[in-house]
């Protein structure tokens, strides 16, 4: 296996960081790696806001529901859907931008943000840093908008903690790969059995870690997905002009 594959296949989220700063040179390389990623129609509608200020990180930790690792990791990067930037180009071309009012707009930005996030993670990990993505900022997107001074037509979609690792984490097991990848046609026939097996695997994983609060994958999803767990996303996105009604 080559080094790139080894790096990607050894992914794990890290939630324990030292207070050692991430050097400016390291951070610059990471940002450039993400900057070079593809975007749909070359729209480049994802912008990053890098936060190193400790007080701001503490505030983000609070916004995300009390996630201590956000305050601990020396760098927090917010990936922002930035239809403000594209609007300037569209206006220059004498047109009126409406893509931000569509499901296509939100979807395409989420895909491009995902690519950006993956590149940030791989670049950071290639330098020996630890990372954990943070969707928890969508718990209170308005607070993130205020903190980062985001203009209309933008939305803080996801964040990323990065820093030097204090306590490494074991890899979390995944469900059978046949539930992930299908060839030639979609086939869900193995799902039920694979979910049963995975629920057992996850419980064994929690036991191995001494986590008595561990619950199965199914229970965890049941708790989370029975509701719109971040109900502020729709109204705050709409207020920002991302209406999602076309
Ligand atoms: C988009 C996204 C958002 C996430 N949000 C959070 C978060 O807010 N807090 C957190 O601790 N982990 C978060 N995670 C990490 C997941 O919990 C983690 O990836 C998952 O449990 C699998 O574990 P692993 O990354 O160690 O393999 C997020 C992951 C992704 C991809």
- Strand share of the residues? 5-15%
CATH class: Alpha Beta
Counting H and I runs of at least 4 residues, what is the number of helices? 10
- Provide the gyration radius in Å: 19 Å
Query: What number of structural domains do the residues give?
Result: 1
**N-to-C order of helices and strands:** HHEHHEHHEHEHHH
Bound molecules: flavin mononucleotide
Large-scale geometry: globular
User: Would you identify the CATH H-level superfamily?
Assistant: NADH Oxidase
Give me the CATH architecture, please: 3-Layer(aba) Sandwich
Query: Helical proportion?
Result: 40-55%
Q: How far from one another are the termini?
A: 45 Å
Which fold name is given in CATH as the topology?
Answer: NADH Oxidase
Fold and architecture overview:
45% of the residues lie in helices and 12% in strands. The N and C termini lie far apart (45 Å). The mean pLDDT is 98. By secondary structure, the protein is an alpha+beta fold. The chain has helices at residues 3-9, 24-35, 54-63, 68-72, 83-92, 103-126, 141-148, 191-208, 217-225, 233-239; strands at residues 46-51, 75-82, 130-134, 154-163. It is built from ten helices and four strands; from the N terminus they run H-H-E-H-H-E-H-H-E-H-E-H-H-H. Helix 2 runs antiparallel to helix 6 (103-126). Strands 1-2-4-3 form a four-stranded antiparallel beta sheet, with helices on both faces. It has a single domain, classed as NADH Oxidase, CATH 3.40.109.10. The protein binds flavin mononucleotide (FMN). The site of flavin mononucleotide has 13 residues, from strand 3.
